[in-house]
Amino acid sequence: MFPGVDILLNGLVQGMVLVLMATGLSIIFGMLDVVNFAHGSLYMIGAYATLLVASFLGGSLGFVFAIATATAFVVAVGIGLHYVIDRPEWILYAFCILGGIYIWNMYGLYTGIGVLLVLVAAVAIILSFMRSEWSSFYERGHLPQIMFTFGIALVIDGAVEIIAGPGYRNLSIPELLTGSVTVFGLTYPTYRLFVVGVTIVAMIAVSAFIRYTEYGRIIRAGVTDPEMVRLLGIDLDRAFIVVFAIGALLAGLAGALMAPLRSIHPHMGVEVLVLSFAVIIIGGIGNIRNIVYAGILVGILMSVMGTYYPAATEVILFVTMGIVLLTRPQGLFGSQGVNS
Amino acid sequence: MSIRTILNPARDSTADILGNNVGFVLIAVTLITLPFWFGAVGGYLSLATTMLVWILFAIGYDIELGYTGQLSLAHTVMFGIGGYGTGLLLLYVTDSAVLAILLSVVLAGVIAIIIGWLSHRTSGLFFALATLAFTMMFYFAATQISAVGGHDGLSGIPSIVGDPLLEYYILLAIVIVGALIAYHLVSTPYGKALVGIRENEQRLKHLGYNVTAYKISAFVVSGLFAGLAGSLLAGTSGFIGPEVFFWMTSFQIVIYTIIGGMGTITGPILGAGVFVALESIVGARIAHWEPLLGMLFIIVIVFFPGGLYMLAAKAGGELR
Fold it and tell me: Least CA distance to A131: which residue of chain B?
C-alpha cells in the first residue's frame, strides 16, 4: 500500500495527544488566565497511574478500567492544583504528604503516617502563627504563575521519581486492541485507531459541555465579565474548579492513552508540555478548533520529519513556532492579537 | 501581594545600605577566602570556580529578570554559545585564551542581538515561550551536529590558566569587576529606565522612551554576561555539553536569581553561589536534590518573595 498512509496515521496519533494537552492548557489559560507549567506532570501522572492499575488488573478490561481510574486520579490532582494555586500556603500540606510518602517508602507505613501527622500539625501551627494573607496566584501575573507551577512540576516529577524509580517503564497494548484493522484495503493498527477515536469523543464532549450546558455558559460568561456573573449570584469559583478539572482530565486522558505507546518515565511530561506550547502558539489561542488543526499539523509534521530526516524534527518544529510567533502572533488559524 | 511585590520586593533603607555595602563586602571576603576553608565543608576548588561562573551568569541575568522584569529563557543560548565558541576556538583555532574568550563573547553578543530583536516582537508570556523555543532549537541543533560533538559535547578543552588556584582568583577578579559594572549600570538613568519598564511599560512608552530598544539592550547586556560566563565555564572545566542549552538550565538560572532575591544584584550572587555549592555538596549525598530544590523555590516564591537577600537584610536590620 501507500507508505504515506502509515506516516500520516502515526502523525495523527501524535497529533491527538498534543490536541488533548494543548486544549487543556488553553482552556485553563483562556478561562482562568493561568499558565500551567505543571500540565506536563499531569500527563505523566496519567501514564504512571495507567501503568500501575493496568499491570495490577491485567487484561483488556483491566486496561480500559485503568484508563478511567488514571484519568479520574489526574482530575483529583488537578483540582488539588487549583486549590494550591488559589491558596499557595496550602502547598506546605502537599509537601507534608510527599514527606510522609517518602518516609513510608523508607521506614514503613506506620512511621510514614506518624511523620505525616507530625508534619501537618507543625505546618498548621506555623501557618496559624504567621496569619498573613498569601495572595492567590490567580491574581498574580503570568510570570509568577510560570515560576510557581514550574516549581510544582519539579516537585511532582521528583516525587514520582522517588516513588516509582527513575527508570523507563513499558506497558504492552492489551490483547483486544492489538492487531490491525483493514479498511478500504488499508491496514491500521487497532490501538492507534482506538486513540484517535477516544480523542475525538473526548474533544466533542468537552466542546459540547462548554457550548451547551448551564455550566459551560457560566464559564464562558465568567471569562467575558467575571464581576457581572458574580453579581448575578453565581459561584464562579466552583465553575473555575470545573475548568481546571476539565483541563486535568484531558491531560490525564492523554497520558493514559499514550502509556502503551511511549516509554514511561518521570520526566516524560516536559517534552509534551513544550510541544503543546508550540501547538498553542502555532494554532492561536481562543478557539478549540485552532488547537485541533495545529495539533494535527504538528503531529503529522513531526511524523513526516521523523521518517525522512529525524535529526531535524524538533529543530523544524521550533523554527516553525518561532516564525509563526514573529510573523503571525495570533497564530496560523487565530484571528485576534495575543499581545493586546 | 501583587505581581509588583514579587518582582520588586519593597526595599527599605536598611536593606539598601546592607545590600550595597556590608553585604557586598561580606560576600567578597567569603569568596576571597573560599579556597582556604571550602574543603572543610565538603567543597573543592573546581566547585568554587564553577560557583564563580554561575555567579557571573546570575549577575547578568538579574539585569534582565530582576531589573527589566522580562522572563527570558534564552540566556542559556548565549551561555552555551560562549562555551561552545571558546571550546571550539581553543581546540581547533587558537592557543590564546584571551582571544578565544573575546571572540566567543562577541559571538554571544551578536546572537543576543538577533534573538533579542526577534523575540521582543512579543511580550509577557509569549516572550517567555518564544525564548524557550530558541533555547530548544539550539539544544536540538547542538545534539545533532557532530562537528560540535553531538550528544557528547566538547571535551578536553585546554585550560585557560594552568594553575587552578590562580585561575580561581582571575575568575574572582572578573566576577568582582562584573558585579561593580552591574551595580553601576542599574544606578544610572539607563538602569532606572529599565526598572521603569518593569514597573509600568505603558508609562515609559508615553514618556517617550523607546521601550523595545531598552528591552533589547538589556537582553544583550545580560547576554554578554551569560556569554562570558559560558566561555569561562568551558575554559575552566574543560568540557561543554549540549545540556547547557537544555530548558532546565534556563530555569536553573531563574531559580538562582529568584531564590537569591531578584532586582538586587547581591541577591542573585548569593543565590547562585549558595545553590551551586549546595547542589554539589548536598546533592551528592542525598539522592533527590531536584524536588528539594523545587520545594525551596516554591517556599521562597510564596512566602519570601524578596529571597535570601531580603531575609539577610532583615536579619541584619534587626541586629543593629
Answer: B303
Residues A35-90: pLDDT tens digits?
899 999 999 999 999 999 998 888 788 889 999 999 999 999 999 999 999 888 88
The string of DSSP codes covering A273-322 is HHHHHHHHHHH-TT-HHHHHHHHHHHHHHHHHHHHH-GGGHHHHHHHHHH
Are the beta carbons of B132 and A277 separated by less than 8 Å? yes
Helices (H), A165-287: 190-212, 214-224, 226-231, 236-258, 268-283
How confident is the model over A257-285, as pLDDT tens digits? 998 888 899 988 888 898 898 898 888 87
Give the residue on B whose Cα is nearest the Cα of A162: B288
- CA A78, distance to chain mean position in Å, is 9
CB contact under 8 A, A322 and B254: no
Q: A315 vs B292: CB contact, 8 Å cut-off?
A: no
CA distance to partner chain A, nearest, from residue B54 (Å): 20
The C-alpha cell 506532570 sits at A41
Cβ atoms within 10 A of the Cβ of A311, count? 16
Distance from CA of A322 to the nearest CA of B (A): 6
* Percent of chain B whose pLDDT exceeds 90: 51
Largest Cα–Cα distance in chain B? 59
How close does chain B come to A162, measured CA to CA in Å? 7
Is residue B5 scored above 70 in pLDDT?
Answer: no
3-state secondary structure of B239: strand
Q: Do A155 and B118 touch (CB under 8 A)?
A: no
Question: Across-strand partners of A180?
Answer: A189
Residue contact A95–B134, C-beta within 8 A:
no
CA nearest neighbour of B16 among B317, B320, B318: B317
Q: Which residues pair with A189 in a beta bridge?
A: A180
What SS3 class is residue A169? strand
Write the ipTM: 0.85
Chain A, nearest residue to B305 by Cα? A144
Residues of A in contact with B128 (CB under 8 A): 142-143, 146
A-chain CB neighbours of B198 within 8 Å are none
> Which three cell numbers, joined as nine digits, stand for A288?
478549540
**Residues whose CB falls within 8 Å of the CB of residue A172, separated by 6 or more in sequence, listed in order:** A260
pLDDT confidence of residue A184:
67
Of the candidates B127, B154, B135, B287, the one whose C-alpha atom is nearest the C-alpha of residue B216 is B127
Check CB contact of B124 with chain A, cutoff 8 Å: yes
